[in-house]
């Protein structure tokens, strides 16, 4: 990255399937065309909650209203009134008291949490977001992912952590919630550039998502990753590579890795030619540490470690399933690795209005990009591909767990 101008240009909310997400794709496409290269847009449809509105109030022993957002793709109700219960961390004792109640619980709207309240007989739910140390909190727009929808739909709302604290202090007997919503489809896009190599049927692909969540300009997460892919394209397009290279800017990552999943599905006929996916998700933060998470053979982490020691670059490597666009590639049988620069505790934050350009530096960004470039060059130009193509049983089991394919009843 030569300067922060392009990063600033991408510094706006880019919700999946929105005009703004498409605008970001066009900004990236324009930069590609400045290099004299062609980019292909691959559209795909996504389900999307539209016109979600909600209200929430205490009805007894007193009356009090709270600002909430409705949970999209979940249940709707014109006015559900029921006893209130604070389920805390959904322990066995709490679950035994939830039947027929509207339940507030700690933590995110995860599969295991939602399954517990459904099985416990809750009729509605409340989640919250934010920090008690924040004076102002933008209440998140949440939605029920497909796997959760399969468990059944009950209405839910999200409120700020301040209001959740007030609600628990008041300890109401009954509450009422209303959720109205429509479901529609939107079009998102993957952006693809191919650099043919001498070995046409061995492909190394670089990827980074370019969408963001609501209330976030998405600079750290993940305009930085999207621009890193541009830097790699510029570098590797200077001469014909030994192996064919794909450069992917993926849409709708924030709604469940949908762009990457769609790409793997669309390119299933050639996916066995992909030897490695190098995914970039959150780079350039000033205070932080570089990490590499490999979903593949442990030998790949040793390879990264070797290059890091050779180049005197500090990075922490591990094997596992990383919650980013590398996962659909690994699930498709492609060894995959996500490079990131994780922020320190108390440092830069993602998924909020705090994700702005202030915490990013060109120097930090370039140091990481130069290392990944050096690692990738060795893989791309090797006479024999050094990346093991097998996927260990442990990784397959972790993928099943992450993708919720083997969930205990």
Task: Compose a concise summary of this entry.
The chain has twelve helices and 14 strands. The chain has helices at residues 5-9, 19-34, 92-95, 111-119, 146-149, 161-170, 219-236, 258-266, 298-311, 326-331, 362-381, 393-402, and strands spanning 40-60, 64-66, 69-70, 77-88, 102-105, 124-129, 156-160, 174-195, 199-209, 243-250, 274-280, 288-295, 316-319, 336-343.
Explain this structure.
With 409 residues, the chain is α/β, with parallel strands linked by helices. 31% of the residues lie in helices and 30% in strands. The protein is built from 12 helices and 14 strands. The chain has helices at 5-9, 19-34, 92-95, 111-119, 146-149, 161-170, 219-236, 258-266, 298-311, 326-331, 362-381, 393-402, and strands at 40-60, 64-66, 69-70, 77-88, 102-105, 124-129, 156-160, 174-195, 199-209, 243-250, 274-280, 288-295, 316-319, 336-343. Strands 1, 2, 3, 4, 5, 6, 7, 8, 9, 10, 11, 12, 13 and 14 form a 14-stranded mixed beta sheet that branches. Strand 12 (288-295), helix 9 (298-311) and strand 13 form a beta-alpha-beta unit. The radius of gyration is 23 Å and the shape is elongated. It starts with a helix and ends in a 7-residue tail after the last helix.
Write the layout of secondary structure elements.
Blueprint: H1 5-9, H2 19-34, E1 40-60, E2 64-66, E3 69-70, E4 77-88, H3 92-95, E5 102-105, H4 111-119, E6 124-129, H5 146-149, E7 156-160, H6 161-170, E8 174-195, E9 199-209, H7 219-236, E10 243-250, H8 258-266, E11 274-280, E12 288-295, H9 298-311, E13 316-319, H10 326-331, E14 336-343, H11 362-381, H12 393-402
Parallel strand pairs: 4-5, 5-6, 6-7, 9-10, 9-11, 11-14, 12-13
Antiparallel strand pairs: 1-2, 1-8, 3-7, 4-8, 8-10, 12-14
């Amino acid at each position: 990255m030569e300067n922060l101008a392009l990063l600033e240009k991408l510094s706006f909310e880019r919700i999946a399937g929105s005009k703004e997400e498409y605008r970001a794709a066009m900004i990236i496409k324009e930069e590609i065309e400045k290099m004299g290269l062609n980019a292909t847009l691959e559209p795909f449809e996504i389900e999307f909650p539209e016109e979600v509105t909600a209200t929430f109030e205490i009805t007894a022993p007193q009356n009090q209203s709270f600002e909430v957002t409705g949970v999209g793709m979940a249940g709707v109700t014109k006015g559900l009134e029921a006893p209130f219960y604070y389920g805390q961390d959904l322990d066995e004792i709490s679950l035994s008291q939830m039947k027929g109640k509207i339940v507030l619980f700690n933590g995110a709207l995860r599969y295991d949490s939602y399954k517990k309240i459904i099985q416990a007989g809750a009729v509605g739910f409340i989640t919250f977001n934010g920090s008690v140390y924040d004076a102002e909190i933008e209440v998140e727009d949440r939605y029920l992912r497909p796997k959760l929808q399969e468990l059944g739909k009950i209405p839910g709302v999200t409120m700020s952590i301040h209001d959740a604290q007030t609600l628990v202090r008041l300890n109401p007997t009954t509450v009422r919630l209303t959720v109205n919503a429509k479901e529609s489809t939107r079009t998102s896009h993957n952006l693809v550039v191919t650099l043919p190599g001498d070995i046409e049927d061995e492909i190394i692909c670089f990827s980074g998502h370019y969408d963001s969540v609501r209330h976030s300009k998405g600079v750290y997460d993940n305009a930085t990753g999207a621009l890193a892919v541009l830097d790699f394209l510029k570098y590797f397009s200077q001469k014909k590579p030994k192996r064919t290279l794909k450069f992917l800017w993926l849409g709708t990552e924030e709604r469940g890795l949908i762009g990457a999943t769609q790409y793997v599905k669309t390119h299933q006929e050639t996916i066995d030619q992909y030897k490695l996916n190098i995914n970039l998700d959150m780079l350039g933060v000033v205070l932080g540490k570089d990490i590499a998470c490999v979903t593949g053979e442990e030998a790949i982490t040793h390879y990264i470690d070797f290059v890091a020691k050779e180049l005197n670059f500090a990075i922490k490597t591990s094997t596992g399933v990383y919650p980013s666009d590398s996962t659909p590639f690994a699930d498709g049988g492609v060894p995959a690795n996500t490079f990131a620069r994780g922020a320190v505790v108390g440092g830069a934050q993602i998924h909020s209005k705090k994700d702005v350009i202030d915490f990013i530096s060109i120097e930090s960004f370039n140091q990481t990009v130069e290392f990944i470039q050096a690692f990738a060059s060795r893989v791309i130009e090797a006479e024999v591909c050094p990346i093991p193509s097998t996927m260990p049983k442990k990784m397959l089991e972790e993928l099943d767990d992450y993708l919720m394919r083997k969930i205990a009843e």
